[in-house]
């Protein structure tokens, strides 16, 4: 690959830069903190490739501008690609590659951390003890052992989550349009969505966001769930109809809610907004519930995952920019 090929990295954070530089020290990087939007797309001028993340906008109008600027390749440094208009990219001759698998355990472990934290109310206990308040009132949890968890999506992350929860002694109910029973532990069985909703004490989402799965968890789905169900979403915000979920929190249908992703997260996550007013009233309402735990899309954020993401992204860029076959290229 010609080392003169310039790669503009959008939505760069200091950790991205250090891991990407370590993986591709010979590449000509341009690191920009700005997300890729219609207002920032011109910053890709002079680059043959852009490297983007989950909330960068790769809709048709932006892809057209990228092509006019001479950008030929897009390297996603993430697994999900719901933010890319792939049909338009292919029509424009822009090749797109992603990082399909990088430490699924990173996301699975964060998902289980959210379950444990919510159940045992660690977020409250942490503050109480620092305030010399050792009362246990309000911290009562339940044993995960013997409970039933419903996993929606049993790909790499769903399987890693299943392995951990099997170890906890939970019963596993799974739903996936492409079942893979051989990859799951013995306590798992595939059921239809209605059965999963009806019988699960904990429900965790591990499927991609597609037109079919958009607002999968809506009012009708919530109505089928157990009263007081724990719902965890470490997948994509658009899988959940947030307003329906707020109603379900108010009616106590949802007892515990853990979100690492949020439908409108592009305006919030990965930034320090601590000095600003947050205008998103739906998000603000979510924060008022004591039984809601939100993290800012950090499930992937381990050293192992960042190292793998960077190495695969650099390998993808080398293949794309050399005109070689790229195993991680997204086809139409
Ligand atoms: P994967 O491609 O290995 O597995 C996805 C599974 O979901 C497949 O088995 C597929 O058949 C299934 N599926 C598709 N549509 C479905 C539906 N409507 N209902 C149930 N299952 C369905 O993907 P992987 O690596 O397990 O990742 C899953 C999702 O996790 C990604 O699409 C991404 O959105 C999210 N993710 C979140 C991260 C975070 O930091 N919070 C990091 C990485 C991924």
From TrEMBL:
Pfam families registered for this protein in UniProt: 2-Hacid_dh, 2-Hacid_dh_C
Domain of life (superkingdom): Bacteria
SUPFAM superfamilies membership: Formate/glycerate dehydrogenase catalytic domain-like, NAD(P)-binding Rossmann-fold domains
Domain D-isomer specific 2-hydroxyacid dehydrogenase NAD-binding span(s) in chain numbering: 112-299
Domain D-isomer specific 2-hydroxyacid dehydrogenase catalytic: from-to ranges: 9-330
Entry EC number(s): 1.1.1.28
Keywords of the record: NAD, Oxidoreductase
Molecular function GO terms recorded: D-lactate dehydrogenase (NAD+) activity
PANTHER family: 2-HYDROXYACID DEHYDROGENASE HOMOLOG 1-RELATED (PTHR43026:SF1)
Family assignment from sequence similarity: Belongs to the D-isomer specific 2-hydroxyacid dehydrogenase family.
Name of the protein described by the UniProt record: 2-hydroxyacid dehydrogenase
């Amino acid at each position: 690959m010609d080392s003169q090929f310039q790669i503009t990295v959008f939505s760069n954070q200091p950790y991205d830069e250090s891991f990407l530089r370590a993986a591709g020290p010979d590449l000509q990087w341009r690191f920009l903190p700005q997300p890729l939007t219609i207002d920032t797309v011109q910053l890709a001028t002079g680059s043959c490739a852009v490297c983007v993340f989950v909330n960068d906008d790769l809709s048709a109008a932006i892809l057209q501008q990228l092509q006019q600027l001479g950008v030929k390749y897009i390297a996603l440094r993430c697994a999900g690609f719901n933010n890319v208009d792939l049909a338009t990219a292919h029509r424009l001759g822009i090749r797109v590659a992603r990082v399909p698998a990088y430490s699924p355990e990173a996301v699975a472990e964060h998902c289980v951390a959210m379950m444990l934290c919510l159940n045992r109310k660690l977020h409250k206990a942490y503050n109480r003890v620092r305030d010399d308040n050792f009362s246990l009132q309000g911290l009562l949890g339940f044993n995960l052992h013997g409970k039933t968890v419903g996993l929606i999506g049993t790909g790499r992350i769903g399987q890693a989550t299943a392995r951990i929860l099997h170890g906890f002694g939970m019963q596993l109910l799974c739903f996936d349009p492409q079942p893979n029973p051989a990859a799951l532990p013995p306590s798992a069985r595939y059921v239809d969505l209605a059965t999963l909703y009806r019988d699960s004490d904990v429900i965790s989402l591990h499927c991609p966001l597609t037109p079919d799965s958009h607002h999968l968890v809506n009012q009708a789905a919530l109505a089928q769930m157990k009263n007081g169900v724990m719902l965890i979403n470490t997948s994509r915000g658009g899988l959940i109809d947030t307003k329906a979920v707020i109603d379900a929190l108010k009616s106590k249908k949802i007892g515990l809610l853990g979100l690492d992703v949020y439908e409108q997260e592009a305006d919030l996550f990965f930034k320090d907004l601590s000095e600003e007013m947050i205008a998103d009233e739906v998000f603000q309402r979510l924060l008022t519930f004591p039984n809601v735990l939100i993290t800012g899309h950090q499930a992937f954020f381990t050293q192992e995952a960042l190292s793998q993401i960077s190495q695969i992204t650099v390998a993808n860029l080398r293949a794309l920019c050399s005109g070689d076959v790229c195993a991680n290229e997204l086809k139409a």
